[in-house]
Amino acid sequence: MRPDRNLALELVRVTEYAALAAARWVGLGDKEAADQAAVDAMRLMLDSVHMDGTVVIGEGEKDEAPMLYNGERIGDGSPPEVDIAVDPLEGTDLAATGAPRALAIIALSARGAMFDPGPCVYMEKMATSSRFADLLELDRPLGETLRLIASEKGTDVRDVTVAMLDRPRHAEAVEEIREAGGRIRFIPHGDVSAALIAVTEDSPVDLLWGIGGTPEGVITAAAIKCIGGQLLGRLWPRSDEERQAATDAGYDVSEILDVNRLVAGEDVFFAATGVTDGDVLQGVHYQPEGVTTESFVMRTRSGTVRRVHAQHNRVKLREITASRAG
Fold first, then answer.
1. Radius of gyration of the chain (CA)
2. pLDDT: which is higher, 321 or 226
3. Angle, CA of 70, 308 and 186, to the nearest 5°
4. Quick check: 145 and 137 in contact, CB under 8 A?
5. Would you say 86 and 93 are in contact if contact means Cβ atoms under 8 Å apart?
6. How many Cβ atoms sit within 10 Å of the Cβ of residue 325?
7. Which pLDDT tens digit goes with each residue over 229-266?
8. What is d(CA 235, CA 243) in angstroms, rounded to the nearest whole number?
9. Are 91 and 103 in contact (CB under 8 A)?
10. Is 270 helix (H, G, I), strand (E, B) or coil?
């Protein structure tokens, strides 16, 4: 049974409560507690959704964080059968330090549509808006891609901005971008939110590039399927052992993975709620009359992107989530 109803409108309740639970830990320096609060709230709310869901991408494996684990069955067990990708708290360090751009995220597709990265935790990836989608090429020198983007924009390369995670493994790419004249916006964590900025038309960021988490790559692909743009990825084994494990499992680590390979079909849903303020969404705000959240709700088949501003009753929140969530 295909997921005909707009499940994203139900999933936004899930990300809202994950964000609300995590927000009570913002700035307290305990990323594990923030992550666990988001996971617990998300799991609680997911069980109320009318679906037979299986977690395909469970964020947390690579750093042994609390998680909704791969293979976990969620929902009330009724049709439709769906795959779920979750990141209950993207940017655990961001939340712990009170930094911008922490999000609660979930993506959903028809059963069997999501790419399973197997043993590969990381992937090389680049993402951009629909305007520059045809210019993406992982094997082309980055400087050349920046020049092509500048030409399409009708500007100098110095007006092209690349977002990337601030990691030592990117040192060579940083040098290449700067030699070409491009600008870099470094991000400490959270490349899903950075990708959402990069694929937005008329954004100050033209391109996301870097080696980041494979789960985030699949989740980002789901969002891009809904709002447009393109992401190209390639598995990035961290060691010879991981490369061999991927090969033994039947993966071609040289394969270029686009959004349709990462998330197939047109029954794709995405929801995200801000935990801390950022470029994409405002975070959880506490006011005398209640708590406010801001969320994105998207669906591929309709192409509709909703921005949902919600006000929550603090007393009723405590009845649903842990005491620290209200």
1. 19
2. 226
3. 65
4. yes
5. no
6. 25
7. 999 999 999 999 999 999 999 999 999 999 999 999 88
8. 9
9. yes
10. strand
